[in-house]
Structures are given as C-alpha cells and as structure tokens.
C-alpha cells in the first residue's frame, strides 16, 4: 500500500491511509449486512471526496484488511497528528447518512456504533496508548447519547441557567436530495416539518401549541402565509426543555421565537460535496430560514416572503442571511423578472436559494460555520462557569435571608426587609436591589409570602 505524507493538505481526508479506512467504514456502516459489498462491483460509489488519494489508497474489502491498514499507524512518526485527522474522519462518518431507502435508521446507528468502536479499540490496543484516542471516544459517546435521547424521552435534557447562554438543540442532516417540493415528498424526511399558522406574527409561545401546529404543516411547506418551518427532531424535546426551563426561572417566560434563546447545530449535505457534510452553528431562527429556503428547491424564495413568514422586518432577515450569502456562499441569489401591472417594464426580483454548486473552500477543510447574533454570545468557559456558580450561591443566600426574616417578623415593609437582608450579608457581598426584587417575586410566585392587601409595599409571610 502506498502512503505519502506531505506537510500540508488541501483536505484532511486526502491521506491514502485515512482515505481507505474512511471508505471501508462508510461502506460497512451503510450496508444492510455486517459485511460490506465486494469492491469489484459496487452499486453506488461511497460518499467520499474525490482527489489524489483515490489513486494512491488501497481498496479494503474485509475486516482483516482493515486491521492490516490500521497496523500501519504504528509506523507513523507523528501519531498525534494522524489521530487528530482520524478523529475528524470519525466525525464525518457519524454525521454522514445514506439515502433513506438504503438502510433503516436503527440498523445504521447500530452499524456505526459497532464498526467505530471496533476500529477505536483495535487502535488503542495496537498503539498501547488509550489516551491518544480520547477525542474519538468522546465523539462516540456524544453520538450515542444523542441517539438515546431521541429514543428515550425520560432522559434529562440540559437547560441553561440564563437566556444569554442559549439552549443547544442538536439536529440531523438537511440533505440536498430532500431539497425542493419533489424531493421533499416523503413526510417523514428529517427537518422538513413546519407549523401552520393563520398569520406569521402569531408564533406559539408554548411547546404544546407549537406541537399542535407542526402536526398540520407539512402540506404548506412553501406557502407564503404559513409561518417558518420547524425542525421535527427539535419538536420532540420542546416540552421537556420548556418544563425544565420554567422550573429554574419561575419569573420568566420561554419564547422560542426570541433570537437569543435557542441555538442549534444542523448539518447540510450539498450535491457536489461527495457525501461530506457542512455543519452550521447558529440561532434557531437561522435553521428555520434554511428549512424554508430548502423547501423551494432551485427556484428559491424572495426575502420579502421570508420576512412575512417569520413575522419580522425584512432588514433583520437580510442581516441574518448576509454572511451565508456574501461570505460563505452557502446560499445563492437567483435573479428573475416579474411582469406586474406594467408588462413593458418588468421588475427584477431576487430570490434566495441554497447553493447547489457549493464546494468546500480550501481554508475551510472541516466545513464548520458559526453564526451568532450581533450581540456577542457569552462563551461557556471556566471563568464564566465559576461566575454563574457565584451568582447562584448569592441568590440562594438572599432567598434564605428573606425567609429567615419573614419567618421571624411575619409582616414587614419593603425597605425594612431590604435593609435587613443587606445588613445580614454585608460582610460577604453587596445585595443589589435587582437581585433582591427577583427573589421577592420568586417567593411570591411560590406562595411563600404575599403582598399585604392594605399596603402593597408590605409583605406577609404565608409558609
């Protein structure tokens, strides 16, 4: 087997050794039987990028040949670099899906889990260093957890402590073979569902209302009067997320149409990418716009129609889609003329469509794009985690102090209660009026205390 190791790569999948392992595992995981089909007469080429590696890499046809190829890793001088690139191919394989009629989802997930773990365990034992493949194991674990969450509703779903940190909703692939009305005919296609509303402005504020609307929306995926489509795989978790969020934030209302509440990660498979997937991290609004644009296929949809369906100003939609259009070329503008009232002077209407000719640029070999809103998103680091823990601890201390004072005096005025609580915690931290009022409203909402009927500036203890 030939193996060349240039210093720089145009793509991380062009190593001959990586390429042959990647192709074998893709075929094995996407086959209905545990063994892959013979390489002499494949019915369909494997979804892998074309390049010089195809000429230099061997074609593996059995598990024994796969293990022989993996043994070559021991001869590589820079194993860390190879394992890093191997981890990227693991991610590509976990996200890649064959057409829906080739293999069932359950069998595909079982194949992926089995083949990936077998390769990872063999590499760990052969190299004698289990720490090298820790990133690959973490990918396997995250992939398995996502599958279990979809199948088992009793599993907990993480809800964030503050709206600025966002709620992460992992979603599945938006494949180019499902773009447009003809391709999107199967109602069970992932990510093609939407909710049907009478007016775009009447966006549902509860998960139950959203679920009821989404059940009737598949027939109006391209209607100009319907609201933006909603990803089906996110709908499963809305009730659970809403319940968890409302338990932690009794004085807030979770609205799914707010731009800074929900963040999603979804993947697209473009026709000229050879099976590779492009991952987009952004707001829930961005994913809903992508779903609406994909439903129109190559014809595209006007920006004005998207704004009406979203119930927001057209300039906001333009600002959200501008990086995808001008910088990264994930979307494309299509010019068309419409006659209107005066046939002699047709107006040029610009439509937005997914870029069917998109190919991954050399400076983006991993194919990941991140689009956060203009307000800088708060990143979760060690410092912010410690800060959040400090805020939670202080709020608990304020709540405890309020309960102690109210239990002792039974009724007290607002200013007196604030001064007492501030004095009790003066040596530890400064009690702000905002935090004090938040805890007061929370305790009133939980019926531990109430405002006096005679004077609204006085509080009465009820617990």
N-to-C order of helices and strands:
HHHHHHEHHHEEHEHHEEEHEHHEE
The CATH architecture of the largest domain can be given as: 2-Layer Sandwich
Rg computed from alpha carbons, rounded to a whole number of angstroms:
27 Å
- The level of helicity is 40-55%
Number of domains: 3
N- to C-terminal separation? 77 Å
Largest sheet, described in full? 4 strands, mixed
CATH C-level of the largest domain: Alpha Beta
Please name the CATH topology of the largest domain. Answer: Ribosomal Protein S5, domain 2
Which stretches are poorly predicted, pLDDT < 50 over at least 5 residues? Answer: 1-13, 36-55, 144-170, 181-203, 341-345, 374-381
Shape: extended
Mean pLDDT: 69
Number of helices: 15
Beta-strand portion reads: 5-15%
Number of strands: 10
Tell me the strand order in the biggest sheet: 1-2-3-7
Structural class label:
alpha+beta
Descriptive notes:
- The structure is a single chain.
- With 463 residues, the chain is an alpha+beta fold.
- It folds into 3 domains: 16-149, no CATH class; 163-370, Ribosomal Protein S5, domain 2, CATH 3.30.230; 382-461, Arc Repressor Mutant, subunit A, CATH 1.10.10.10.
- The chain contains 15 helices and 10 strands.
- The chain has helices spanning 16-30, 53-56, 63-71, 79-95, 105-127, 134-151, 180-183, 207-214, 232-248, 284-295, 303-310, 314-327, 382-409, 414-424, 433-445, and strands at 167-175, 262-269, 278-283, 301-302, 331-338, 347-354, 368-370, 411-413, 449-451, 458-461.
- Strands 1-2-3-7 form a 4-stranded mixed beta sheet.
- The longest helix has 28 residues, at 382-409.
- Mean pLDDT is 69; it is low at 1-13, 36-55, 144-170, 181-203, 341-345 and 374-381.
């Amino acid at each position: 087997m030939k193996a060349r190791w240039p210093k720089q790569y145009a793509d991380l999948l062009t190593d001959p050794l990586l390429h042959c392992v990647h192709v074998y595992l893709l075929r094995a995981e996407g086959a209905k039987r545990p063994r892959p089909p013979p390489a002499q007469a494949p019915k369909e080429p494997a979804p892998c990028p074309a390049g010089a590696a195809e000429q230099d890499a061997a074609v593996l046809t059995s598990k024994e040949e796969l293990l022989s190829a993996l043994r070559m890793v021991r001869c590589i001088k820079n194993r860390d670099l190879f394992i890093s690139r191997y981890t990227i191919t693991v991610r590509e394989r976990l996200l890649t899906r064959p057409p829906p009629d080739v293999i069932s989802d359950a069998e595909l997930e079982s194949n992926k889990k089995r083949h990936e773990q077998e390769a990872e365990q063999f590499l760990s034992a052969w190299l004698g260093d289990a720490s090298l493949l820790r990133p690959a194991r973490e990918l396997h674990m995250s992939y398995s957890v996502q599958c279990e969450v979809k199948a088992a509703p009793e599993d907990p779903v993480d809800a964030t402590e503050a709206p600025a940190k966002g709620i992460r909703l992992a979603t599945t692939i938006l494949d180019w073979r499902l773009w447009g009305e003809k391709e999107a005919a199967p109602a069970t296609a992932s990510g093609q569902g939407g909710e049907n509303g009478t007016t775009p402005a009447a966006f549902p504020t509860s998960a139950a209302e959203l679920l009821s609307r989404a059940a009737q929306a598949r027939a109006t995926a391209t209607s100009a009067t319907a609201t933006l489509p909603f990803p089906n795989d996110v709908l499963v978790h809305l009730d659970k997320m809403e319940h968890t969020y409302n338990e932690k934030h009794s004085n807030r209302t979770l609205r799914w149409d707010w731009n800074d509440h929900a963040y999603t990660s979804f993947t697209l498979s473009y026709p000229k990418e050879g099976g590779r997937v492009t991952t987009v991290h952004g707001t829930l609004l961005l994913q809903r716009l992508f779903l609406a644009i994909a439903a129109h296929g190559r014809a595209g949809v006007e920006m004005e129609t998207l704004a009406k369906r979203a119930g927001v100003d057209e300039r906001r939609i333009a600002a959200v889609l501008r990086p995808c259009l001008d910088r990264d070329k994930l979307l494309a503008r299509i010019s068309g003329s419409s006659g209107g009232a005066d046939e002699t002077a047709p107006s040029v209407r610009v439509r937005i469509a997914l870029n069917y000719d998109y190919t991954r640029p050399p400076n983006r070999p991993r194919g990941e794009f991140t689009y956060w809103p203009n307000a800088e998103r708060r990143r979760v680091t060690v410092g912010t985690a410690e800060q959040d823990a400090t805020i939670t601890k202080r709020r608990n201390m304020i709540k405890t102090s309020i309960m102690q004072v109210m239990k002792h005096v039974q009724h007290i005025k607002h200013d007196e209660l604030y001064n007492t609580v501030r004095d009790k915690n003066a040596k530890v931290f400064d009690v702000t009026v905002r935090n004090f009022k938040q805890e007061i409203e929370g305790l009133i909402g939980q019926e531990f205390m109430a405002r006096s009927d005679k004077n609204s500036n006085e509080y009465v203890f009820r617990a």
